[in-house]
Amino acid sequence: MSLFDRTLVALLPMIPKSVVGRIARRYVAGDSLEKAMSVVERIEGIGACSTFDFLGEEISSIEEAESVRDAYLDALDAIKARDLDANVSIKLSAFGMRLDPGICHVNVNSVLDRARRHGNFIRIDMEDSSLTSDTIGLYRRLREEGHENVGLVFQACMRRAMDDLQALEGLAVPFRLCKGIYVEPEDIAYQDPGEINRNYLALLERMFEQKCRVGIATHDRELVEGAQDLIERHGVGPEQYEFQMLLGVQKPLGRELLNRGYKLRIYVPYGADWYAYCMRRMKENPRIVRYVFSALFRRS
Ligand code: FDA
Predict the structure, then answer these.
(1) At what angle do helices 286-299 and 17-27 cross, to 10 degrees?
(2) Is the Cβ atom of 123 under 6 angstroms away from ligand 1?
(3) In this structure, are strands 264-270 and 214-217 parallel, antiparallel, or unpaired?
(4) How far apart are CA 23 and CA 26, in angstroms?
(5) Gap between the Cα atoms of 32 and 154, Å rounded
(6) What architecture (CATH level 2) is domain 30-270?
(7) Which of 10, 73, 195, 241 could form a disulfide with 190 if both were Cys (CB 3.0 to 4.6 A apart)?
(8) pLDDT single digits (tens) 132-144
(9) Which of 176, 265, 273, 281 is catalytic?
């Protein structure tokens, strides 16, 4: 990140919430499930499917974790009631992993049970490196308990990812593969974009060899094209992969994929915690901060 971008990021807390709200409209579906449903219906209208992400990462009590769980139960019921082509993505920290791993397990179990009853699927997002081992550990436990309708996210920036993948061989894990959004130290994570991309494609190839279903989550054209090469070279069938993108990001690339007949799933964040979510996204990607500042000046 350049010094200029670092300065903009440091100024973020001074931006009025209303300005952030204007920018947020592009990346967040709204503050309620009802608004998220309308966005998902629009996404279906262009031929893509969705995954719902209820924004509730920053919790500090078991009660909050339970209300996140309840929000997901409502989302699963609503998806079923409206017959939407959508699943849900959860973060274990929001389900109480940092407060009480036992309660987190119980909470995840209830959404998995509801999803199974509705014929749906739950994706466990991968958070920062302090939760990597616990996330993989809980995932294994859920599979041992007989849950099949659950998938996991791997981050290509993590040096351990290939070893973790080997260790899960035989489980045919439905993966989502992404670069990883968290800032991690050099000893555990690749920093060089070229190295991250090489690891991404190496992991993807190994996942295909292991016959895993993969959500190829990226807006990076180089990776999209690399993935398409692998798909062709390995003769991977359309049931074994889909592309995934975040709401509001790189729409032209998404449209291109749809026009070429690829399956595309859009990650749809929603919920009252949209402000914290947007601030996080802007810290990750200084280009968004530039949009915010230009909006600020246009406003004044
Ligand atoms: P890169 O960052 O190189 O972006 C490629 C292009 O897209 C650039 O032009 C860039 O400007 C644009 N772009 C990317 N992100 C943008 C944004 N937020 N706003 C505006 N423009 C943007 N990470 C994680 O650690 N754990 C997880 O569970 C998930 N889950 C997840 C689900 C889905 C569906 C997606 C698409 C991504 C994630 N991620 C994630 C985030 C992921 O790790 C990564 O940070 C972003 O996808 C950005 O990486 P790209 O591969 O898109 O490349």
Answers:
(1) 130
(2) no
(3) unpaired
(4) 6
(5) 29
(6) Alpha-Beta Barrel (3.20)
(7) 195
(8) 999 999 999 999 9
(9) 176
